[in-house]
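Researcher: Batch entry, complex prediction.
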Amino acid sequence: KAGVTQTPRYLIKTRGQQVTLSCSPISGHRSVSWYQQTPGQGLQFLFEYFSETQRNKGNFPGRFSGRQFSNSRSEMNVSTLELGDSALYLCASGSPAGGRETQYFGPGTRLLVL
Amino acid sequence: EDQVTQSPEALRLQEGESSSLNCSYTVSGLRGLFWYRQDPGKGPEFLFTLYSAGEEKEKERLKATLTKKESFLHITAPKPEDSATYLCAVQDKMDSNYQLIWGAGTKLIIKP
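Model: Structure tokens for the complex:
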């Protein structure tokens, strides 16, 4: 079974621009979560989508948004980029079964904002 | 408030020197505790899930154990390729959305 894939793997943007990141979950998984990871802050939860609905949201400004499509693929958008948005953005997919769910991560998208 | 604390922050060992990493947690009720391994610049790799106190799981040189308040990741005779950051996360049984609460991680360095 193919794992979680994320595109692009690397991005360089300038302040004020916007960016869209894509995540394809493991086949059959309906849940997609997004995280931001920086050296100083560790893994910070952005939001989670399940069956095209946002199920959970972390404490990030409205510049960060996401969506999920009917095939469970998900996109994350960041508008008006700031230097502090430079980070590794990780996507994880899961599928609840019997009251249990394990998340599996993709390789991440490294975003550098200049 | 749900909380996960990992210790130590960093651990340097000689190759073959066994040790343990700790993950202590505070949740209303534990749905599951997860261990991941993360190499620099890569996504976390799933290692184990533990669901109830007394449960143990093993994979190669790693063994995870769980009590009602903490989990240990025991590393037996580690090799340099075991060097990574090990992350612990928990799911609260009261959260119907399966959100993970993460620890800050333990950076493990195995010297040859």
